[in-house]
Every structure is written in structure tokens, then in C-alpha cells.
Amino acid sequence: MLRKKRIRLALMTSVFPLLTLSFASPQVVAAKETAASSPSLSAADSKKVADNYLKKHSKEYKLKSDISDLKHIQTISTKVATYVRYQETINDRPVFDKQITVTINKKGKADLIVSGYAPYKEVKSIKNKQPVTNIENKALKGIGAKSKDKWAPTINKYGYIIQDGKAIPSYRVVSHTKKPFGAWETIINAENGVVLKKKNLNQEATGVGKVFRPNPLESKGSTSTFKDKNNADSPALTRQLKSVHLYNLKGKGYLKGSYVSISSKAKTYSSTNTFNFTRSKNSFEDVMVYYHIDKMQRYIQSLGFKNINNRSLVANVNGTNDDNSFYSPSTKKLTFGTGGVDDAEDAGIITHEYGHSIQDNQVPNFGSSSEAGAMGEGFGDFLGATYEDYLAPSSYGKACIGEWDATAYSSAKTPCLRRLDKNKVFPRDLKGEVHADGEIWSQALYDMATAFGRDKATKIILQSHWSLTGNATFKDGAKAIIAADKALYKGSHLSTIKKIFAKRGIPTK
């Protein structure tokens, strides 16, 4: 679990196919070849374009010449580009966490290739595959848990991992346990039951909680004398509550809508759909989460994206007494904690967590490498900080996320969970910790918003995600952003974008 005073707001990973045991650096090539003349291709034609390009350049990407081990799993079409995604397979089973994406522009050209494909010399044979029950029991034993401690059903999938040039038949098991708490991914050798890899997929984060827009410090424009005092009301804090509309409620008196569905111990209900609470009531955080997630999804759609996380996300508010919150990629749910300042009282923290859900939806297994994890953290911080700036456009709290939450552990004049203006440079300032390293990526994104506005920056960044794989690098991300700007705005921001990434030490070629 993440501890607020040490590490906060975490990386996002996603479900099948998952796992990185040995990281093969993804290859990125700006593909320039004309693949079709039509400015608007069907999904089938787009796949054909991608297939032909990969076959022709199979040696360059170390693929089989007929790409017979690449399984097409998704084609996403937008107004400006189409994204074709493939899963590497062996014997029609997934090689966990090994994918390729092909970005095709409006002219029908393969414009960008991001490859996480892992070549191998040998496929290990298997004589006796372990029974699934044995495998799941070994997974529980490997994390020190018992079957009675489950909080959700176990998930398992059979496939392969690549280690030292060898393809090893394996199971990927996700165990949802209370002790130790998490959604634990365990990779187990399918023949001998040896645990090869384990990690907690519940990437947790701190947060805080009528609604705060975005939090009492920013709406007030100063630290004032606000204190949490174990969720106590105060006249000063109550004056910072704002009346808002809660759109598209479908829960017959409950906070359930098109984009978020609240699940909490408060069981917040109103027969008249009137949800006016002060922060001393648990229902207040329910309203906070519903409002801010709903508003963020509506904002994403206002940018022209109808296919990014367009679903009713289940949010378990006040779901744990710990000073942690997390998005679980295996269950696709959010959970917020109540330690310190309640996590769901700060819109920036809520939005950061929603950012992990967004990337999980756009890119399977995003965040499986250290740089991708840092990019995930940086994107979440960018999303939260720019949202806070939009809601409270004063100079207080600029380039900062989680001011209200940070009052629980910071005595700074402007308390802040993390900043987006530390002028960190890659690779000089790498610490090997995704939250700290994420400040390199978040500042680049934040500088984009400063240069040409939140809307254009967010649109380019969201568009770029489809070009990525789960273990993409900073360089991959920067190149994808450049490709997205070309697709959306004919490259009108290229000079500025290149300067921004150069200042952060991130290459774009």
C-alpha cells in the first residue's frame, strides 16, 4: 500500500494481457510509407494497411515475416487517426504484456509504430500442466494470503512470458485479498508451479475529499486556517461549499449515473435527488466523487472523444480506513480512503485516480515499465492540476495538486502533494520511483497547457495514448504526442512541443 507521508498517488496497470518480467525496450519508428490513398479507411482497411506495413518491415521490428503470431485485438477510429493494436501470441495464447500499435493517419499512411514485441529463440515444451486450483493456491501462498481473505473472485489466464529468449508457458493469476490487501498479479510457471513474478495491481493513492470546487484552499485562494479535525464541520469550511448540478442520475434516488456509480457505506439516498451535505457526513464524499468524475468525463467528451472511459465507473467511497486510495485495473473500480483528510474531499486527487482509469481504458497494461509508470503518474497529476486550475483560476495553487489533502502532512505556505514546476530533467533527475519521476513528465504536459491552453493540450495528450503500449518510454510518449498534434492540428504546435520536451531532456527523434 502507498503511505501518504512517503509515496502518494500511484501508477496504473491494466488487465489482460499483463506482466513485465524482462523489459524489451519498445521500438518506435516514425513510419512514412503510403499505405492507402483513401482519406478515411474502414476498420478492415485500416487493419490491412497495418498488416501490410508490419509484414514489409518485419525485419526492422524483429517480427515473423507473415506476422502470424500477431493477433488483432482492437481498432480505434477517431476523426484524425486510426489505431490498430495487436497482441503477440504463441500457440494462440497471449505473450503477457507484449503488444504492438500502428497509428494510421487520415491519408492512410502508417504514421507511427510502437512495438513491445519480444522475439524468442525457443518455446519451452510442457508435459503436465498444473491444475488451475493448484495454481491459484500457489498464487495465494506466494503472497501470504488465505482463500477466506478474498474480496473479489480470482482471475486466471494461460499464456507465455519471455525470459532470456525463451517462451515459458505460464499462468497469470489475479488474487483479490484483504490480507495483504490488494489485487495481486502472480505469474506462475504452468508446469512446475514456481512463482516467477508478483506485484500488487491496486495502485493506491492519497486524497481528500455539497462540493468543494476543487478544494477549500484553492476556492478560498489561501491556506486560511482550515483544519481537518477528524471531518468536523466549521463555518469557514462550510462557506467553501458550492452548489452544483448532478447530471443524469439513474439510481432511483441513489448516486448512480452514466459515468459513475457510487458504492459506499453511507448508502447515500434522496427521494428528491437533493444531496446537500456538509463534510462531517460520509455522504458528502459520495457527492464529491460523483460530481467530479461525471464532470471530467463530460469534459473529455466535449473535446470530441466519445470512446474514452465512456462507462459507469464504480467508486467505493470511504471504502477503507487507511490513508490510501486506489484504482484497481482488475476490478475496474475506484476505492477511496479516510485516513488524514478524507481522500474524496479533494477534486485533484479524485481526478488523478480517474486518470489511471482513463489510461487503463485506452492502453491495456499501461504502466508496466518504470518510465510508463512515471508517465501514468505524470498524466494523472496533469489532469488533476489543470482541472483544479480551471475550477479555481486564481494564482494560488498553480502547478500544484492536492492542496487540501496535503494539510494533513505539510506545513508549507502552499501545502502540495506534488508539484508540476520543479524543472526536473531526464535522465539526470531520475530517482527510480514513479511518483518522483512522474514530475518530469507532468511538467512537460503542464507546460503544453500553459503554452497553448488546457483544451488543446489535453486533446493532444489523450489522442496520443492510443499510439502507446503498456511499457512505452518517455521517448515513445513524446513521439506519440507529436504524431497526435500532426493528426489533430497539422503540426501547428510542433515547434513548441519539441522545445518543451527538449527542456525536460526527453528526446523526440
UniProtKB/TrEMBL annotation:
<keyword id="KW-0645">Protease</keyword>
<protein>
    <submittedName>
        <fullName>Zn-dependent metalloprotease</fullName>
    </submittedName>
</protein>
<keyword id="KW-0482">Metalloprotease</keyword>
<feature type="signal peptide">
    <location>
        <begin position="1"/>
        <end position="30"/>
    </location>
</feature>
<keyword id="KW-0479">Metal-binding</keyword>
<dbReference type="GO" id="GO:0004222">
    <property type="term" value="F:metalloendopeptidase activity"/>
</dbReference>
<feature type="domain" description="FTP">
    <location>
        <begin position="82"/>
        <end position="110"/>
    </location>
</feature>
<dbReference type="GO" id="GO:0005615">
    <property type="term" value="C:extracellular space"/>
</dbReference>
<dbReference type="InterPro" id="IPR027268">
    <property type="entry name" value="Peptidase_M4/M1_CTD_sf"/>
</dbReference>
<keyword id="KW-0732">Signal</keyword>
<dbReference type="InterPro" id="IPR050728">
    <property type="entry name" value="Zinc_Metalloprotease_M4"/>
</dbReference>
<dbReference type="Pfam" id="PF07504">
    <property type="entry name" value="FTP"/>
</dbReference>
<feature type="region of interest" description="Disordered">
    <location>
        <begin position="212"/>
        <end position="234"/>
    </location>
</feature>
<dbReference type="GO" id="GO:0008270">
    <property type="term" value="F:zinc ion binding"/>
</dbReference>
<keyword id="KW-0862">Zinc</keyword>
<dbReference type="InterPro" id="IPR011096">
    <property type="entry name" value="FTP_domain"/>
</dbReference>
<dbReference type="InterPro" id="IPR001842">
    <property type="entry name" value="Peptidase_M36"/>
</dbReference>
<dbReference type="GO" id="GO:0006508">
    <property type="term" value="P:proteolysis"/>
</dbReference>
<keyword id="KW-0378">Hydrolase</keyword>
<dbReference type="Pfam" id="PF02128">
    <property type="entry name" value="Peptidase_M36"/>
</dbReference>
